[in-house]
Design goal:
The protein has 369 residues and is α/β, with parallel strands linked by helices. It has 13 helices and 14 strands.
């Protein structure tokens, strides 16, 4: 039986990847660094997880690459599916060594760095004629504006802390002082209104399009502009085309989510993204295509090969969002979130494998790592 190794089992996205790979006929091995969690992650109890492997130390350790290589040597050229950004960058920096032991679709480190740099993405989008928010040098001429470092992830910032909104000059000065601790020249952009949406793409070794899925944000937390807590799948060929033209221009390989708001491109997540479980909820072949293409099989892109109109939520985060929408007086959004308790798919629940959800809930409430 073919083997697939999924890293960073502590993340919710790893659960979706493990289930999809198991269903595709792989023996699934999951790894997790001991120093990065307080207890065994929920994915370890999944019926789709055939083997769970602890790796001593943390992902940020200097010898993490050697430890991961050592695990890979125990299997016969498995498919490597990197969930965490640190692991992805570790493999990208030493692609030849890892390619000798495993199959994967991962862009070179310099390509990942370019796509993680919001200014680099902004300039390329302008060159391609893709709308982007207006940028300001110095004090903005009008408000509100969004202030963010070029690459918040590089500074270890959580998703909700990678940008802040200033509604006036006093707020702008305070935010700039805080952001300049990480980046001496933060990016300042006009705040775009409109629907938030993402185009998630899979590109092959020659940057050819292999898979795509669109989702729109329904709710987010913090409600002023944080990660999505509830989203819905839909199909938009034009959105996919804009995302593909951008990624292809960088010669990208692998998985990425390109984020839009209104007509404007905001940023790129050149890795497994937070709402990745939508690939499972919408019954997309995204993960299976990744494994097949990584192993050298020919995969052809099929437009709209997933279910549209599927709404998915993360229970804990969405509950917090609902309460904050209520507190902010947005009653309609709050009532819709209550209705979604009965209609939306919980991202981590799966018939026959629901112990994963309860363990994740317990770990999140009492022993979050």
């Amino acid at each position: 039986m073919k083997t697939a190794l999924v890293t960073d089992g502590k993340y919710r996205s790893s659960i979706a990847a493990v289930r999809a790979l198991h269903r595709a006929g792989y023996r699934v091995v999951v790894t997790q660094t001991r120093a990065d969690v307080k207890s065994a992650p929920a994915v370890s109890v999944s019926k789709s997880c055939d083997d769970f492997r602890w790796i001593d130390g943390a992902c940020a350790d200097a010898d993490y690459a050697e430890k991961l290589l050592s695990v890979l040597k125990e299997y016969e050229h498995p498919v490597l599916f990197c969930v965490g950004a640190v692991t992805l960058n570790t493999v990208a920096a030493r692609r030849e060594e890892f390619a000798a032991l495993a199959n994967f679709l991962i862009a070179p480190k310099e390509t990942l760095d370019a796509l993680n740099d919001k200014e680099s993405v902004h300039q390329r989008a302008l060159e391609l004629g893709i709308p982007v928010p207006r940028e300001y040098d110095g004090t903005p001429e009008s408000y509100p504006v969004v202030v963010k470092p070029h690459c918040g992830e590089k500074f270890g910032l959580k998703a909700a802390d990678r940008y802040a909104v200033a509604n006036n000059e006093a707020e702008f000065d305070a935010i700039m002082e805080k952001m300049q601790r990480y980046d001496p020249s933060p990016i300042v952009q006009q705040k775009i209104t409109g629907e938030g949406a993402g185009a998630s793409l899979l590109l092959g070794r020659e940057s050819e399009l292999l898979g795509a899925l669109c989702h729109r944000r329904v709710r987010e937390y913090p409600i002023t502009g944080g990660p999505s807590t509830c989203c819905e799948s839909f199909y938009d060929a034009a959105l996919i085309d804009r995302a593909y033209r951008l990624l292809h221009s960088f010669g990208f390989t692998g998985m990425a989510m390109v984020e839009f708001k209104g007509d404007c491109l905001l940023e790129v997540n050149p890795r497994v993204w937070g709402s990745f479980p939508m690939t499972e909820a919408a019954q997309s072949p995204f993960t299976a295509y990744y494994a097949r293409a990584a192993a050298g099989e020919r995969v052809r892109y099929t437009a709209q090969d997933y279910r549209s109109g599927v709404r998915m939520r993360f229970l804990l985060n969405d509950t917090l969002a609902a309460l904050h929408y209520l507190r902010a007086g947005r009653i309609g959004v709050f009532l819709r979130s209550i209705a979604d308790l009965f209609t939306a798919k919980e991202a981590l629940r799966c018939r026959g494998d629901n112990r994963v959800f309860w363990v994740y809930l317990k770990n999140s409430l009492f022993a979050r790592g």
